[in-house]
Amino acid sequence: MPDDSFPAKTAPSDSAQASSSARNPVASSAGQSHVVPCSSAFRDRVLALAERQRVSPADLARSVLLLIPRGRIAKHLDPGEPASQDREEVRLQSGASAGRVLRRKPRLQMRLPKPAVGQPYDNTLLRKALALALSMADGQSELAVMTEADRKAEQVVEQARDKLAEENEELRRLAADLAMPVLARGITGRADALFVLGFPPSAVPDQSTIKQRWRRLARIYHPDSPFGDHERMTQLNAAAERLV
Asked: Exposure of 196 by Cβ count < 10 A (0-12 exposed, 13-18 middle, 19+ buried)?
């Protein structure tokens, strides 16, 4: 039955989608049939790639499913089902309704071998697999071979990254412990300004010394630094303005 009455786009015949399967006896062997709804633009791209490679859409999907872990396929963007106005026109060829025109969602029809137990194929997975095949064909993605040595090297890098993150966190804690406390009352006089900049109460620093100290502390407390602190930076600015 038709699923809507929107204006239609002409669809490739089902026999056209299956033509490359006929050239490949493996693809047309016993298995499960899948009807995967997708946009007409996505369907056309998949069919064009299959035609260029002289295979079927099922071959493209199965190649990805065989070579790439499902977890990685699942992370790929799903092209999704067709929009409500994206419909194709199909004319019935036989039976009592011969000649009748149906409007339906664009789709890709594929026949795949039965999947392993506990790993069923669903439309989302098949669309993502085909999208990944298109991405690789366009040069946007590639299939990399990772050896055991590569995995060990990657683990070393990850461990070094984790250690560096721990060291940075420790430095952040030390900087917070050593930092001058934020004055709740703000900068009310010269003594407060000297305190915030780390000078003793009796110090009489010249402007050059004050600016050097401000620059050194600003590298630590500026909001864009790893140890940034907006409140301390604001008070640091106020202290420098008070003394200069």
From this structure: buried
* pLDDT average per 10 residues of sequence, the chain (244 residues): 45 52 45 94 97 96 94 93 92 84 92 89 96 95 86 92 89 73 86 89 91 90 83 90 88
Do 86 and 163 reside in the same domain of the chain?
Answer: no
Phi, psi of 32 (to 5 degrees): -115, 140
Report residue 34: phi and psi, to 5°. -130, 135
Q: What does the alpha-carbon distance between residue 134 and residue 49 come to, in Å, rounded to a whole number?
A: 7
Helix or strand or coil: residue 227?
coil
* Nearest to 57, CA basis, from 75, 43, 39, 40: 43
Q: What is the CA radius of gyration of the chain?
A: 33
Q: Identify whether residues 57 and 163 lie together within a single domain.
A: no
Q: Nearest 5 degrees, angle CA 202-CA 205-CA 209?
A: 145
Instruction: Give a three-class secondary structure readout of 176-194.
Output: HHHCCCCCCCCCCCHHHHH
Rounded to two decimals, the pTM is 0.53
Q: What is the pLDDT of residue 2?
A: 45
Is the distance from CB of 203 to CB of 156 less than 8 angstroms? Answer: no
* CATH code for position 179: 1.10.287
